[in-house]
Amino acid sequence: MFKNFCRLCYYLLPCLAISLSAAGQAEVLIQRTPDAGLQPRLIQSADGAVHLLYFKKRLDRPAAREGSLYYRPYQPEQNRFGAPVKVSSQAFNLQTVAISRATMALDGSGRLHVMWYVAEAEQYFYSRSNPERTRFEAQRALASAFRDGLDAGGDVAAMGSSVAVVWGAGALSREEERTMIARFSADGGASFGEELQISDSQLGACACCSMATEFLSPYSLMVAYRSAVNGVGRHMQVLTVDDVFDGSLSWQYRSVDALQEWQATYCPLSTNDIVGDAAAQPWLVFETTGRVVQMSFGEPAQPSWVGEPFTETRQKNPAIAFNQQGDRLIAWGESVSHSRGGRLNLRVFTADGVETDYRLTEQVQIANFSFPAVAALPDGNFLVLH
Fold first, then answer.
1. Looking at residue 340, what is its pLDDT?
2. Measuring CA to CA, which residue among 341, 319, 227, 332 is closest to residue 273?
3. 32, 110, 130, 371: most buried by Cβ count inside 10 Å?
């Protein structure tokens, strides 16, 4: 059922507020990114606060793709996003593909940590906020020893005072030898250690697929990335890196399920997303052979397809969120190209894992150069930006 109202309209464009059929279930609020922003990222903190990161083109050059990253907090009392705070110190050109998207994480002191890729500089940049999130430090370059073959977005994770930045590097012509690289900080991002190889080089790493990472503890990091075994085995690998601060890194891989396997001689240009459920159990969503897959890290859970597409077309760029009741929303785009955002699709599951009968029948076009972002609001409803 569609309702002709929007509680978040102060800073956002008109939205669709869709109520699930069962009484008491959450609403799904679908909206354009504020400020005519592109490539939104949403995260939730442990207290339920929602944070938005997005790219905004320069107003004096609307036809160009040059612009900056901005942050906005969600203000539940006013049911709107707050004023924008500039993140990137220097303007840069937006990449038309989702694999180069920026990412952020929140640490135990309230600081936001942001990482993004700038293609023309062939570099990853990092900035962190003050604890109040009212300003960001001057951006810093991250890659030095491992700058060969930078071609897709990395990811940043934070827990307590631990921060990790991760990316893939190595010759583009030899993807089967590429590895994942990480730098770790034990002081909340004030300083980072040296660049370290953290993955098995025999598995390779897909050059133009992004990845996702999350701390399991302040000393243990999970990384989900697409391999390039013999140049064609682009399977979704789930890597756990332990002892990240004591100089004796160790790692182990989760067994690859059939739904994680993807044999391809081409680069899939895929993205994935990790988020914790109501019990802080990590979930991963990713693409395999053109279909979105969901995967819990609880045992003995197995990966599963999320939902059928509207038509026989590829599903891309999934995002996942949980509300406090444990309901789960997964959104993605369909008929996506380098410049076209595609059509929004999504599924909602109850805390018991049962798929609801909710279907998005209204055609929602994702903005060009963009993709979906999802979060649960403090009232338990879901927000979808594009």
1. 87
2. 319
3. 371
User: What residues in the chain have per-residue pLDDT under 70?
Assistant: 1-24, 61-64, 299-300
pLDDT at 87: 98
Q: Are 39 and 54 spatial neighbours (Cβ–Cβ below 8 Å)?
A: yes
Please tell me the predicted confidence (pLDDT) of residue 18. 56
Task: Report the distance separating Cα 328 and Cα 281, nearest Å.
Answer: 13
CB count, 10 Å around CB of 132? 8
pLDDT at position 3: 33
Q: Are 171 and 177 in contact (CB under 8 A)?
A: yes
Nearest-angstrom CA–CA distance, 371 and 4: 24
Residue 375: the pLDDT is 97
C-beta of residue 87 within 8 angstroms of C-beta of residue 53: yes
Three-class DSSP labels, 307-328: CCCCCCCCEEEEEEEECCCCCE
CA distance 17 to 340: 24
Max CA separation in the chain (angstroms): 58
Question: Letter for the amino acid at 294?
Answer: Q
Which of 176, 234, 230 shows the shortest CA–CA distance to 209? 234
User: Which CATH number is 53-318's, of 2.120.10, 2.60.40, 3.30.420, 3.30.160?
Assistant: 2.120.10
> Whole-model pTM?
0.93
The tokens for 252 are 């182990």
Cβ neighbors of 14 (< 8 A, separation 6 or more) are 6, 31
The CA-based angle 286-287-292, given to 5 degrees, is 85
In a 13 Å sphere around the CA of 112, the CA atoms on its Cβ side amount to 31
User: DSSP 3-state assignment of 40?
Assistant: strand
Q: Using CA atoms, how far apart are residues 97 and 368, in angstroms rounded to an integer?
A: 10
User: pLDDT value at position 17?
Assistant: 56
